[in-house]
Design goal:
Number of helices: 22
Distance between the termini: 54 Å
Strand content: under 5%
Number of strands: 0
Largest sheet: none
Helix content: over 70%
């Protein structure tokens, strides 16, 4: 009977059952099998509602939705182009940096492709970048920036794992820069190979574009500086960011109306937050069952017979997490998988901060991995290209990102150096 219901849940997921409903059904099935009352799920949701750190999620989400309105994306692209456009392959570098920055401040990869893809793809083609290169760059750049403040996935990982969100913000700076930098070097290399023309650096255009984006560019840096100096916590940073973004959008740029647009954007952003919290409540109930059933310990026992070294475990972990990133959205993956792998990582002596950076790097790559990576389908729809074409176009970029992933995975100081300075 239990097996038949489990198979039914899997079939329903294949045919479109929402993720939160599948997780909740699996949790209820497991609790029923273990003779535990369903009130355990309600208790977990109550515990969730009392977690102060979760206040950062709706506030940062609201700020991100505000920034996705108006001309923020155009101002960021213009500034990046004035700063980096003179490089060989400079427009590709501009696209990568702009997308990473936009993902960091909005917290969603799909939004980046939708907001910037239609702007950057025609520009790349018009400057004689190959179609395959342009498609691969726009698609993979949508998942860059997940490591930079104010990353919602990092906040959620910190909540689930118990790791310090402030230290996670610091830990993501170098690994995130590495992933962006590797692809930027590839763009410069291809620019030289194709002998693309690049406009000379213009100080006048640089200062004009800097003036235009001067209110938005400092946001991630102010968050890092405030947290690093101890001036405010992650939750306080979220509140300050939301107020600041409302001010610049309504008063400075006058792109949004306080009474006409702000309530609409708030409503849209809270729909996103509501879906995250529903998934979180269901996932916590499922985690309750996993812990009561000793599933992490059983998996650990199995892996100890299969993998004997830390290096082998990390390699297996990377492979597993990329697969997870292909089939699950990043929030569901964090909520369901992190409680499962935390005991395993602790057994092999992996720092939880380092684990979080590895986790996000893998999920970001999984978003772009054929055949079912989410970014592939978003880019296919936004850029009006066959998804099979995108499979081919993203392969060189995926290869470079995997090299960066291996460096992040097997060189912990890259992630842990800055957090070690945080007091």
């Amino acid at each position: 009977m239990i097996m038949a219901i489990a198979i039914l849940i899997i079939v329903l997921v294949i045919f479109g059952l929402p993720v939160f409903a599948a997780i909740l059904a699996a949790a209820m099935l497991g609790l029923y099998h273990s003779h535990i009352e369903f009130s355990a799920i309600a208790i977990e949701i109550l515990r969730l509602s009392n977690a102060p750190v979760l206040l950062a999620i709706p506030l940062f989400t609201f700020a991100g939705y505000l920034l996705s309105e108006g001309n923020t994306s155009a101002r960021l692209v213009r500034f990046s182009r004035s700063l980096l456009g003179w490089l060989p392959g400079g427009l590709g570098v501009v696209a990568l940096v702009s997308c990473a920055f936009f993902t960091a401040i909005t917290g969603a990869t799909g939004v980046t492709i939708i907001a910037l893809g239609g702007l950057l793809f025609p520009a790349l083609i018009s400057e004689n970048y190959s179609e395959d290169f342009s498609l691969g760059l726009i698609t993979t750049s949508g998942s860059l920036g997940l490591h930079f403040p104010p990353s919602l996935p990092l906040i959620l990982y910190g909540f689930v794992s118990g790791a310090s969100i402030e230290r996670l913000f610091m830990a993501g700076v170098f690994p995130g820069s590495l992933m962006v930098g590797v692809l930027c070097l590839f763009s410069v290399f291809m620019g030289k190979k194709w002998k693309l023309e690049a406009p000379p650096f213009s100080s006048a255009e640089f200062f004009q574009s800097l003036k235009g984006a001067a209110w938005e560019l400092p946001i991630p840096f102010l968050i890092i500086l405030g947290i690093y100096t101890g001036f405010f916590t992650a939750t306080e940073a979220a509140a300050m960011t939301a107020v600041y973004v409302v001010f610049i959008k309504v008063v400075v740029y006058k792109e949004l109306s306080l009474l006409g647009d702000i309530p609409r954007v708030m409503k849209d952003s809270m729909k996103m937050v509501g879906s995250i919290l529903i998934i979180l409540g269901a996932a916590l109930g499922f985690t309750n069952y996993l812990v009561d059933a000793f599933i992490p310990m059983k998996v650990l026992t199995f892996l100890q017979g299969l993998v004997q070294s830390k290096l082998g475990f990390l390699l297996l972990l990377n492979f597993f997490l990329i697969l997870v990133g292909c089939v699950m959205d990043i929030f569901s993956a964090i909520l369901v998988v992190v409680p499962l792998i935390m005991p395993l990582a602790a057994k092999f002596g992996i720092n939880p901060i380092h684990l979080g950076i590895i986790f996000l790097a893998n999920l970001g790559i999984g978003y772009n991995t054929p055949p079912v990576g989410l970014n592939l389908f978003i880019a296919s729809s936004r850029l009006d290209q066959p998804v099979m074409h995108l499979y081919k176009a993203t392969l060189p970029f995926l290869a470079l990102l995997i090299i960066a992933l291996l460096i992040i995975t097997y060189w912990p100081p890259l992630s842990l150096f800055l957090p070690s300075l945080l007091r």
